[in-house]
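**Backbone shape codes:**
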Amino acid sequence: MLTKSAALKVVPEVAAPVPRAPANAPAAEAVAPARTLLLNASLEPLCVVTLHRAVLLMMSGKARVLESSGLTLHSEHDEVPVPVVISLTRYVHVPVRRPVPPTRRTVLQRDQHRCAYCGAGADTVDHVHPRSRGGRHEWTNVVAACVRCNHRKADRLLHEIGWELGFTPRAPRWSFAFGPAGSRLDPAWSAYVPA
């Protein structure tokens, strides 16, 4: 086991370690993932960390690799697998997280930037039951909408204009800490992060 000072010498900066593909790997797979999923010791997802932070956690003995990309980081004295999913070796108590509020960004991300009414690209949000008629600003009443549908609906109820929603709006089940808006989850994370 390396000491903390030795680990810092091995990986002083993010750009210092050079990922190398195995001899039989195609050149397209030689790109190391920039993000690593960090799990608690109980295997619940905590957050996404940079490759640099993941390697430091592994080399200091605070985390172990659950899934790797098949690539290896090389230094003068060590080789470390490039992690995709790591788990802490000791359980860390996490305070109860507040639910994510329904902002424009989070609603668009939940609805994958698709209009709830016509399916086109969405860039605004709409209250299904208009606020001017007593509707509340909550996950079950807010959907992504394109500008055209938002203006056509205005402050009317869906049954008044003959429209229907193709789904029931709900609060998202997972935290948006697992990636920036519009990003896709790494396929290797699917076993650890709820859909």
